[in-house]
Amino acid sequence: MTIKILLADDHKILREGVKALLNRQEDMEVVAEAGNGEEALSIAGEIRPDVTVMDVMMPQMDGIEATRRIVEDGSSRVVALSMYADRSFVSEMLKVGALGFLLKDCASTELVEAVRKVMDGEIYLGPSISHIVAKLYVSSLHDPDDIEPLTPREKEILMLLAEGNTNREVAERLHLSIKTVGTHRQHIMNKLKLKNLADLVKYAIRNGMISINR
């Protein structure tokens, strides 16, 4: 049986690479592509693919919300892809029903195996993601987290700020006003109970949102 796959990612060049990889497998076929979460939700409901390979951060509707709705509708099983080994991304994607989670720099064989495992209803986590899940479990036992979760937009702004961008640069990149970015920044600091930008950078590194080697 051929596994019918929907690719959802806002970077066309990445979709093309993943599509070529999966279409080389005798038991797989990429039958549709989506450039944002809303498209993914609409297409999944229409064609009901066996597996959706879903980017976590996308415009219009993020992968977390799209996955939640797709799983609730029973349209498809989901493998999540992310550039960042962020604990909150992993936790939220698994909570809304994704069965697989991989980083975008994973080996091609991992993605192929993940699609097959998820097709069979099994869970597949990349090595670094398994480590994060283990840490989340231990933390839930010994150190309950009372921090209010960030929204996808707040996470995006946090990562850009932690990478050294100013409020103005973040505003230009995300097509927001400087005032809006400043408001988001203050909300982030309040939610995470951080005092300054240095604390924000440390938080981003500790949670895998940016690389310490940047």
TrEMBL record:
The keyword Transcription applies. One of its GO terms (molecular function) is DNA binding. Residues 4-119 form the Response regulatory domain. The modification 4-aspartylphosphate is found at D55. Residues 143-208 form the HTH luxR-type domain. Signal peptide: none annotated. CDD domains: LuxR_C_like (cd06170), REC_NarL-like (cd17535). Pfam families: GerE, Response_reg. Keywords: DNA-binding, Phosphoprotein, Transcription, Transcription regulation. One of its GO terms (biological process) is phosphorelay signal transduction system. PANTHER family: NITRATE_NITRITE RESPONSE REGULATOR PROTEIN NARP, TWO-COMPONENT RESPONSE REGULATOR. This is Two component transcriptional regulator, LuxR family. It comes from Dethiosulfovibrio peptidovorans DSM 11002.
